Give the backbone structure.
Amino acid sequence: MHRPLPVAITGIGVISPYGRGIAALLDGLAACESAIEPLSICPSPLHVVPVVGQVLDPLDVPAPPGRWLSRTDRLAVIAATEAAQALPPSPDARRDCAVVVATTVAGLSDIDSAAVLDPTTYYHIVGLGPASTYPVSRVAETVAASLALGGPTLGVSVACASGAMAIALAAGMIADGRVSMAIAGGSDALCPFTMAGFNALQALDFEPCRPFCQSRAGLNLGEAAAMVLLEGEARARARGATILARLSGWAFTNDAFHTTAPDEEGRGIAASMVQAMRAAGVDRGRIGYLNAHGTGTRLNDVAELRAYEQVFAGTGARVPVSSTKSYIGHTLGAAGAIEAVITLLSLRTGTLFPTLRLADPIDTTSVELLRGGTLRTAMDAAMSVSAGFGGSNTSLVLEHAGEGGRS
């Protein structure tokens, strides 16, 4: 297998239900504080009010000339602006920087019921500005326009693996020498249509979710955006950048199984993990933490744990695993990106964040489902795993970036 050149993560940015910025996210996680609460930012499209992870901060983002910004756009620009603080100050850096952003709903989160009932009248009165935000490519284009980034832009939409895949695709572009730097990640706002769709699938839990618990009943939706600044490790060291972590391996697979259900044995997830570790040159025994997809649905959690058992069986020590969707909900296109950022924070701080509300864990033998309070531990490598409808799987391997594996 082709082993990609190491890619450095030199900037991170996020807006989450804890508020703006990495510090707010880290504070919420460290306190083991759930940000899941009754929906209040928009009317519920369901017969009851669901609990969600919602951003209550004002999203005051100036629109680039001639652009209408959706809520998803605004979240993305806020997160990307924080990550872009690590860009070199030269105009060339911005002119050459690529933008790869994942989303599943884009501007559909803002669609007005009037547009559904009478689109001709609605768009005649309002104009076509809202409609311009519906394509999934629009979010990446908006980030690029807002931050004056002149490299290639790419929109990614492969369901709930999208955020991780956007980071991996951008890393591949850098490793192949196609671009020198990239802002990559994901953004999704809460969307009434998405809520109704997951409810129709009977996938929602109307109480705060309980991933990996025997009594789990479904997922909670959330909204967020998370972005990373990626560049070649050699370039980052040459310019004296602070390297937050090394993204040393990544891989994609597909279950080729079902539109919404995972492969019951988790074979696709397992394959993506094995391929990512092989690409990174990281033995499975070096993985000190695994941030799971962990939605809290009946089917996903079992399939996912079966994948972990396949990968880590016989390694001796049980690998610590947790689902941080129990803190902020399932943020769809942003999930893989914000979970990659959380994995990076765990790696750098030596802090593992347990799954909340995990009272009665599913039985496992090769991994340790974290619960209770935070755990302090030293580790050289960690992994983030994402999966999505249609069978898409993405695994990312992160390492400390300094000599001997330390940054």
Summary: The two ends are 27 Å apart (CA to CA). The chain is about 30% helix and 20% strand. Confidence is low (pLDDT under 50) at residues 403-407.
